[in-house]
Amino acid sequence: MLKFATEQNPSIRVLSDQAIEKIHGATLEILASTGVAVRHEKARAMLHDAGASVDGERVRIPAALIEMAIRTAPDRVVLHNRLGEPVMPLEMGRVFSVSYTHLRLPTKRIV
What we know:
alpha+beta, 3-stranded antiparallel β-sheet, two-stranded antiparallel sheet, 17% strand, extended
């Protein structure tokens, strides 16, 4: 059985820093040039007020706006259950998984 010190977390590195930067750059280009469909009117208004270009439901988001959002995003977000109790802190170094093996899929009887 493997044991890890509290400060250690096993990790897998799939992409290099260079690959991550390339993907990020392509994403910024797509969001700025092609944009994304935003169907929620208030969300479109908020993005427009922040500096995005809005054409109907199509919203083109400039790279500077995306970079600012990334810089100002919190390091930690906590999800709560229905009772308002904190149950899942989303932060660096935390991994959560869910198993759906207990669910039964509907079966069709062949007679």
